[in-house]
Design brief:
This protein is an alpha/beta fold. It has 7 helices and 11 strands. It has a 9-stranded mixed sheet with strand order 3-4-2-1-5-6-7-11-8, with helices on both faces. The longest helix has 18 residues. The protein is globular.
Length: 255
């Protein structure tokens, strides 16, 4: 199996390195990832400037290609230009921070996985919930992620499908409470901004929002992750509301 590994935190991120080490047991892993952090860049792609690439060796573990672009750029370029052939699987992560609820819309990690699905490949996005009071352990997270990835593949993951996996923040030696297949929470996230004034008297604003796993419906990714479960959520890139489509199609239209 040939695997394309990417992320949105940059090619030198420890979550990517940990994931590489675990995925190597599944097959041949090729890393093509952003040169710099691209968190919350969504599904943007680069059109008005060149995509510079550079080979980079990370901690002696792997030599990958850093792309001066977005996560979706990395997947596009890897598949069309950089890899010896189309990969059998695309993994995006491990992301630093949860990608549940409305974060799925903003996430560069999710965008990379969805881009792979656009292109007809099976893909999995992996993210780790972070909590200040619990030390971040990407090595342990990657081992848990691999167990879930193996099961997803065993259950059958086909080209064009994308699965979103989120790992809970856990103290050393503690296991997750289990795995739950859940839907994406669609409750809005309330943004907060800090207003400041520059030396010339102009107002500017810093987004000071802190994502928290607040109350949500019992069957959502937010609730399951908050309760210490690994979450598995199948996603889709078809934004058509098919129920509304059928209703609107029955209406009369004049020109």
């Amino acid at each position: 199996m040939m695997i394309l590994l990417t992320n949105d935190d940059g090619i030198s991120h420890p979550g990517l390195l940990a994931m590489y080490r675990e995925l190597s047991s599944l097959g041949e892993v090729h890393v093509v990832a952003p040169q710099t952090v691209q968190s919350a860049t969504g599904h943007g792609i680069t059109l008005t400037s060149p995509l510079l690439t550079q080979e980079m060796t990370v901690e002696g573990a792997f030599t990958g290609i850093a792309v001066d672009g977005r996560p979706a750029d990395c997947v596009k370029l890897a598949i069309s230009q950089l890899l010896p052939r189309r990969p059998d699987l695309v993994i995006s992560g491990i992301n630093s921070g949860a990608n549940v609820g409305i974060n799925v819309i903003y996430s560069g990690t999710i965008a990379a996985a969805i881009e792979a699905a656009f292109l007809g490949l099976p893909s999995i996005a992996v993210s780790l919930y972070l909590r200040k009071e619990i030390p971040t352990d990407y090595t342990a997270a990657a081992k848990s992620a691999l167990k879930v990835i193996r099961q997803i593949l065993d259950h059958g993951l086909h080209g064009g499908q994308v699965i979103n996996v989120n790992l809970p923040a856990l103290p050393a030696g503690k296991e997750a409470n289990g795995v739950r297949v859940v839907r994406q929470c669609t409750r809005p996230w309330e943004d907060t901004y800090e207003k400041r004034t520059d030396p010339r008297g102009r107002d500017y604003f810093w987004n000071s929002s802190v994502f928290q796993l607040n109350a949500s419906e019992h069957d959502s990714d937010v609730t399951a992750l908050r309760d210490g479960f690994i979450t598995v959520t199948p996603l889709q890139f078809d934004l058509t509301n098919h129920d509304e489509l059928r209703r609107w199609a029955k209406r009369s239209w004049d020109i």
